[in-house]
Design a protein that fits this description.
Layout: H1 5-16, H2 26-38, E1 42-45, E2 51-54, E3 61-66, E4 79-80, E5 85-87, H3 96-114, E6 121-126, H4 134-138, E7 148-152, E8 158-163, E9 165-174, H5 190-199, E10 204-207, E11 210-219, E12 229-238, H6 241-261, E13 265-274, E14 277-278, H7 284-295, E15 301-304, H8 310-316, E16 320-324, E17 338-339, H9 340-356
Parallel strand pairs: 3-6, 3-7, 7-16, 8-15
Antiparallel strand pairs: 1-2, 2-6, 4-5, 5-17, 8-14, 9-12, 9-13, 10-11, 11-12
Helix pairs in contact: 1-3, 3-9, 5-6, 7-9
Length: 358
């Protein structure tokens, strides 16, 4: 069963020209609802703005893609080059992350219809993925019957089966201001407190499944004033629940200890953004995608990743989701592009996977 590559490209080009920066997806959701209805799927838009559709009773699998893009993502002007790439004029992102996945799903549904092949599917087009998985976090999972899913939000050949838990820390340290040249001993330096805590912790790549990072530090008013306030944004990620808990606890302990040592105060707000998961490599869907990759002449790359996708929330709700797809290169930048051959390849891999399911 062959896809229509020209139709796929036309669909992708049309989708990227529909503005849908995170939080502003209503237009593309309305467009996609119309497209799915024309393909005879039953559709529903939930309270968060996600679009859910089903093509038949007792669906065997769900297909997922997010509809939002990062900024700058308005007035995108796609250009198809002679070498077979799709890019922009350089003033915006392209939006292949993740409108390539959206276009692939539409093409798969149309191809199945054209060939009168019935595969009962659930389709979930989410919103606000780029700003913290907002759509899939608020999705009503009781509306879904599938126990497995393919998230189309990666590169052709990728089979992402695990993602980390993430804890985000907002840390506020309060000390005491004083003249740094006249009475420094009367002050309590919050930058000194922060420096000691940071120096006592591990940062960067801690091990193969754990990372930590300080992203921002803001403190002080002038070079001759002992800094009274310092705020820090940091994070810990791990695919190991045990290590995740250990390093999150260690981070809080070190900041509290440093604040106590210098008689300052520290307030720590910790928010867990995702849950660690790893889909067992014996899960049949993984082999089905791997076989489809080999069938299309590309070596499958089964891997664990350090970022998070909508698959994280689906797995947290008992739906085993793995991630593949056909996203382009230089995503989240004005140099973003996608090869037409990759867009078609990623689409064929998912279609061939579906055709192999029993």
């Amino acid at each position: 069963m062959k896809i229509n590559q020209n139709r796929l490209v036309d669909s992708f080009v049309k989708l990227v020209q529909i503005d849908s920066e995170s939080g502003e997806e209503s237009e593309i959701i309305a467009y996609l609802e119309q497209e799915l209805t024309s393909l005879r799927l039953k559709t529903e838009i939930d309270k968060a703005g996600n679009l859910i559709a089903v093509s038949g009773p007792n669906p065997v699998i769900a297909l997922i893609a997010h509809t939002d893009t990062v900024k700058p993502g308005k007035n995108i002007k796609p250009i198809i080059t002679e070498s077979g790439e799709i890019k922009t004029d350089g003033s915006t992102i392209l939006g292949a992350d993740d409108k390539s996945g959206v276009a692939s799903i539409l093409e798969i549904l149309q191809t199945l219809k054209d060939n009168e092949k019935q595969i009962n599917l659930e389709i979930v087009f989410t919103v606000s993925e780029e700003t913290g998985l907002g759509g899939s976090s608020s999705l009503d999972y009781t509306k879904l019957k599938s126990k497995q899913a393919i998230n189309l939000d990666s590169e052709p050949g990728d089979i992402c089966i695990g993602e980390p838990a993430i804890m985000q820390f907002d840390i506020e340290i309060t000390g005491k201001a004083a003249h740094a040249g006249v009475h420094p001993e009367n002050g309590i330096s919050t930058i000194q407190i922060a420096s000691e805590a940071i120096g006592n912790l591990e940062w960067g790549r801690i091990d193969f499944e754990t990372t930590s990072n300080v992203g921002t530090i803001n403190g002080g008013l002038a070079r001759n004033i002992v800094p009274e306030k310092t705020t820090i944004q940091a994070e810990v990620r791990s695919r190991s629940v045990e290590k995740f808990q250990k390093y999150c606890q260690k981070l809080e302990e070190e900041f509290k200890k440093a604040a106590e040592k210098y008689h300052g105060e520290v307030k720590i707000d910790a928010a867990q953004r995702s849950n660690a998961y790893v889909v067992d490599t014996n899960f049949p869907l993984i082999q089905s995608v791997a076989d489809a990759c080999n069938q299309n002449g590309i070596k499958p790359d089964i891997k664990l990743i350090g970022g998070i996708t909508d698959a994280n929330n689906f797995n947290a709700h008992g739906i085993k989701a793995i991630t593949t797809g056909s996203c382009g290169t230089n995503i989240h930048s004005t140099e973003e592009s996608i090869k037409i051959t990759d867009l078609a390849l990623g689409t064929r891999i998912v279609l061939d996977t579906l055709l192999s399911l029993k």
